[in-house]
Amino acid sequence: MPDETSAGDDAAGDDTAGGGTWRDRHPSTARTFAHATTALSTILVLLALLMPNQLTLLTPGQFARIPVEGIFGAALLLVLPPKARRVASALAGIGIGLLTVLNLLDIGCNETLGRGFNPVFDWPLLDDGESFLQDSIGRAKATGVAIGAMVLVLTLLVLMTLAVVRLGNLMARHSATATRTTLALGTVWFACTALGVQVAGVPVAAESAAGLVQNRAQQVRASLEDEQAFAKEAAVDTFRNTPGDKLLTGLRGKDVIFTFIESYGRSAIEDPLMAPGVDAALADGTKRLRAAGYSARSGWLTSATYGGSSWLGHSTFMSGLWIDNQQRYRTITADDHLTLTGAFKRTGAWRTVGIMPGLTKGWPEASFYGLDHVYDSRDLGYKGPKFSWSTMPDQYALSAFERLEHGRTHREGQGEQRARQHAKPLMSFVILTSSHNPWAPLPKIIGWDEIGDGSVYNAVQKAGKNPVDVWKRTDQVRTEYGKSIQYSLHSLISYLQKYGTKNTVLVFLGDHQPLAKVSGDHASHDVPVTLVAHDPAVLKRISGWRWTPGLRPGPKAPVWRMDTFRNHFLTAYGPQSKRGSAGRLGPR
């Protein structure tokens, strides 16, 4: 029987012009090269078949196992005729390569979003990942990383295909030995399964690749079925046909501001490393607002997303529907479903605006949210530098909001052409972005009269930390994240203290928890939510919610799913029965 260096082995090649083949002239080197190539092919295939889809499972014991897929694959290749064997080997190599790519995507998503990669919905997230890299390491380096990733994927597919084809050909040339080896490994696998043999707590008999393929198939099927189920769910709406004059009667005449603070999660308030600074900011803010005549109540909401995809949290909160994937988002934003902001517009009693510093291009969803006008990053007049992902500091965005909209509602007798003595009150949807990862460099609080067009932030940005340096250490990333939340809170509280009126009502909350590197493995999806008002009657309407007094929700404060908030809010601030039951609405 010929050995690995026999004719037909692609590793050697021919060189008849030099007097025989290269293998004939260098037999020892050829055998070493062939053995090394076979060994590498075997290792590559085994690593792919045994690779987990979570970083925490990536241990040596995970690879000290026998993959059943390899055994069945080898048995199949041994019984196939040569042509069919080569085709099957190539297809198997491509399949294993694609499975490896999906496993790597799973690891990335588990580390950032707290869930695996959805092969139906999550491909657009790759663009977000590239944007994050551009903000962290610069456009040129991010482009290099993107190109490198594509080359890596193509190389992986090619090498995996060549590896399986090589092993198939090798088994065909050594069919007797390969058959005995396959039968022996199969016997060992079944014995280990029956006896429950483990190494370092990991079963020796592995079937993880087959399980992952099955899970992928189930995930794809469930994702496709979810589209139809969600369409039926979205068609049911308690408030769909409620006339405008019956909506939000308890807030007429109030300026209502809904503000999302990027990545403001429960971890910021309860994690031992980050909580001291954030809790101090909340305690100080509660004291300052109380001195200005405001009171607050705070609770918890469970977000539909984690670590990113903020728009899923925004749409869940506003629509009263659970929007946890991109397909649901596309479905609902193409519908006429009543959003919380849209309810204000339906009344005809408010002007509705959006302040979206994170937007850099058109946003057709404005109509879904019922916004009369949207100010994106191009409309806010900012002339300063970006702070990593964030196009401008939160304090500047709030200053622009005051200049462009909120202040115009209240200024009178100052030569302001658009001052409106009897104008509609304002309902505002404000997105603050300074606490978006990578949390370096960070802006600083400055005097409101110093902000101007934002040029003052050039020096602040240059003096800030480099995100590459920050991300070298987990504790430093978490520390800077905590500082970013403190900055956003200080900006918002200071804005309300300076520009708020007796008719101002502020609802602010987080869109999701920060990624797992900050919040930790298995963190909840809970985010804080707070309602602040000067008028005691506004807070009296939610007395039945049992929220914690102040800006910091207590550990025993109610936890609601984020999609339930819309109905809670519309009920509490709608027409009240004589018994005032709306204020006693409990979580569902």
Automatic annotation (TrEMBL):
Membrane spanning stretches: 33-51, 63-80, 87-105, 142-165
Spans annotated as Disordered: 1-26
Superkingdom field: Bacteria
Claim: Transferase is one of the keywords in the record: no
Keywords: Membrane, Transmembrane, Transmembrane helix
InterPro entries xref list: Alkaline_phosphatase_core_sf
Keyword Amino-acid biosynthesis: no
Biased composition (Acidic residues): 1-13
Protein name: Sulfatase
Organism: Streptomyces chattanoogensis
